[in-house]
Amino acid sequence: MSLTLTDVTLTYADGEDRLTALDRVSLEVPRGTLTAVVGPSGSGKSSLLAVAATLVTPDAGTVTVDGVATTGLSRAELTALRRDRIGIVFQQPHLLPSLTAVEQVQVMARIAGRKPRSARGRAMDLLDAVGMAGQAGRRPHQLSGGQRQRVALARALMNDPTVLLVDEPTSALDHERGAAVIALITRLTHQRAGATVLVTHDRTHLTAVDRIAEVHDGRLHGAAPVRRRGGCGAVPS
């Protein structure tokens, strides 16, 4: 397994009480697979992603990333783990307005201390992989919403993470562009043999994912494999 959550519980202060965001959640995501986590707004999807990304420490339970248990790691060690082994694609691309597409991707390598020349070559390869090589010199305001999401995906892959976490990638896209982004994430997951978790409230584009797990009121219900029909995935109802 590349990502494992075991009996994870997360609560937040709610006045004098505690609100349970995640209730003994367990999830295993093997290498080379994409698991979609679905559920309505407020169900706990984003909390699950934040815990998996080591951005939030759970009240109880364990998170293991690429064989490394995160319990007890220092803040610096968690930062290094995210930098080297976890790629995160947020709901909003959060691209820097002054940087071109290729520079957006290169930033991650600079943070990791890689040489600029080799970093640019890898950044261009990743932009090519997501269909954005022809837009490498453009800045965010010159790109469409779908193009910005593709640049954000390339950026998340720059340091060759073992685990990729994607938050609501289709929320600001129309049907066609949303389907294209999900298909791209699925293809790259299988090609790179990484472990991907994709959080969404929209089942429309999930025909190609490997597993679907549902979150309701902070509880995770299974991670059922997607049934395939004639080479195409069928999303279980």
TrEMBL record:
Signal peptide from the UniProt entry:
none
The record places domain ABC transporter at 3-237
One GO molecular function term of this record is: ATP binding
Stored CDD domains: ABC_MJ0796_LolCDE_FtsE
Q: What keywords are assigned to this protein?
A: ATP-binding, Nucleotide-binding, Transport
Supply the InterPro entries for this chain. AAA+_ATPase (IPR003593), ABC_transporter-like_ATP-bd (IPR003439), ABC_transporter-like_CS (IPR017871), ABC_transpr_LolD-like (IPR015854), MacB-like_ATP-bd (IPR017911), P-loop_NTPase (IPR027417)
Which branch of life, at top level? Bacteria
Q: Please name the taxonomic classification of the source.
A: Bacteria, Bacillati, Actinomycetota, Actinomycetes, Kitasatosporales
Entry annotated with the keyword Repressor:
no
In its UniProt entry, what is this protein called?
ABC transporter ATP-binding protein
Any single Pfam family the record assigns to this protein? ABC_tran
